[in-house]
């Protein structure tokens, strides 16, 4: 269990001075790290400790697929010693801005590309062809899945990679030690999640999600994503009536009784699919692209992953 939590996410582009538990010492605040998402902001904060100021661009509840930075936020990125992004196409509204930061000599670090990213595992056409996983994972058939933070062990690796990056900027400030301690917490969380999910039998480890955001979770914990409400790995897709009808048919065939919606997106489409299938189908909300508000149980990355796993276990477990 975590003894304390230093990171507090506030308004957009508010500088977060992060210290040891209970400390108000800003430490070496001359080092400025700008981070795109609240999830990565929490990870970076745990590695930075009180040795840097961390600025998180996206507010709580923001959808990283659709968020675009303001001119003030662009200035924050250009002024940073390090800009940390997820990459792999997640921050779709940041592409041109990040190119500009690099062109102007800024330092941008894409976490997702270092974490053995996987292809999107679910494709509607592939799934209709006898659930052919081999076809679904052929090289080049899918773009890479950016939702790496849904796997705690990959996030343990991410902490180490952030420490390496920070050591290149300013060595000897304890980055590696804090990253190792945080990685150990994530490894403990992984074991806890495995135990929590043990109540879900192999035949029930089928996921229908709002969009294809649980691929890393599914890979790590032996689940299968059998359908999505919004096609593809972005929340910006627009499902056709035929695609929704196909999802209803798939859920009926496989006797799936839960749709996992997201806090970053309205659940109207998921609710409509559930209504089509009948009252026995539940819509359960997960935290995917953003941490939660205070009191949500998802105020930091570890609690977010723990809460999601608990909700999945409760919804699917026997």
Compose a concise summary of this entry.
By secondary structure, this protein is of the alpha/beta class. It has helices at residues 38-48, 71-78, 95-103, 124-128, 133-136, 152-169, 175-196, 215-221, 241-254, 268-277, 301-316, and strands at residues 14-17, 32-35, 53-56, 82-85, 108-110, 206-209, 224-228, 258-262, 282-286.
Structural commentary:
With 318 residues, the protein is of the alpha/beta class. It is 39% helix and 12% strand. It is built from 11 helices and 9 strands. It has helices at 38-48, 71-78, 95-103, 124-128, 133-136, 152-169, 175-196, 215-221, 241-254, 268-277, 301-316, and strands spanning 14-17, 32-35, 53-56, 82-85, 108-110, 206-209, 224-228, 258-262, 282-286. A 5-stranded mixed β-sheet has the order 1-3-2-4-5, sandwiched between helices. Helix 6 packs antiparallel against helix 7 (175-196). It starts with 13 loop residues before the first strand and ends with a helix.
Any key phrases for this structure?
318 residues, alpha/beta
Alpha-beta content class: alpha/beta
Query: SSE order, as H and E?
Result: EEHEHEHEHHHHEHEHEHEH
| Approximate strand percentage | 5-15%
Return the average pLDDT rounded to an integer: 86
Number of strands: 9
Count of helix runs: 11
Helix content, binned percent: 25-40%
Overall outline: globular
Taking the alpha carbons of the first and last residues, their distance comes to 26 Å
Largest sheet: 5 strands, mixed
């Amino acid at each position: 269990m975590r003894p304390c939590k230093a990171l507090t996410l506030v308004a957009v582009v508010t500088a977060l001075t992060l210290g040891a538990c209970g400390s108000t010492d800003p430490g070496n605040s001359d080092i400025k790290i700008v981070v795109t998402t609240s999830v990565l902001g929490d990870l970076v904060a745990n590695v930075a400790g009180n040795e840097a100021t961390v600025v998180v661009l996206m507010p709580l509840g923001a959808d990283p697929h659709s968020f675009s930075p303001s001119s003030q936020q662009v200035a924050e990125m250009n002024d940073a010693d390090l800009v940390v992004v997820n990459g792999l196409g997640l921050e779709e509204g940041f592409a041109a801005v990040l190119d500009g930061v690099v062109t102007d000599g800024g330092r941008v670090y894409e976490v997702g590309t270092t974490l053995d990213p996987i292809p999107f595992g679910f494709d509607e056409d592939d799934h209709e062809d006898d659930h052919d996983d081999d076809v679904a994972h052929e090289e080049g058939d899918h773009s890479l899945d950016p939702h790496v933070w849904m796997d705690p062990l990959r996030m343990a690796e991410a902490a180490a990679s952030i420490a390496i990056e920070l050591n290149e900027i300013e060595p000897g400030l304890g980055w590696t030690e804090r990253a190792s301690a945080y990685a150990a917490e994530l490894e403990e969380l992984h074991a806890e999640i495995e135990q929590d999910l043990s109540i879900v039998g192999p035949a029930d480890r089928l996921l229908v999600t709002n969009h294809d955001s649980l691929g890393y979770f599914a890979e790590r914990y032996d689940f299968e994503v059998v359908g999505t409400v919004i096609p593809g790995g972005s929340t910006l897709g627009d499902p056709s009536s035929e695609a929704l009808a196909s999802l209803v048919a798939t859920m009926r065939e496989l006797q799936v009784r839960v749709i996992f919606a997201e806090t970053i997106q309205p659940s109207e489409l998921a609710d409509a699919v559930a209504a089509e299938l009948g009252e026995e189908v539940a819509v359960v909300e997960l935290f995917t692209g953003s941490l939660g508000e205070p009191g949500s149980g998802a105020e930091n990355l570890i609690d977010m992953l723990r809460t999601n796993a608990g909700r999945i276990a409760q919804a699917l477990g026997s």
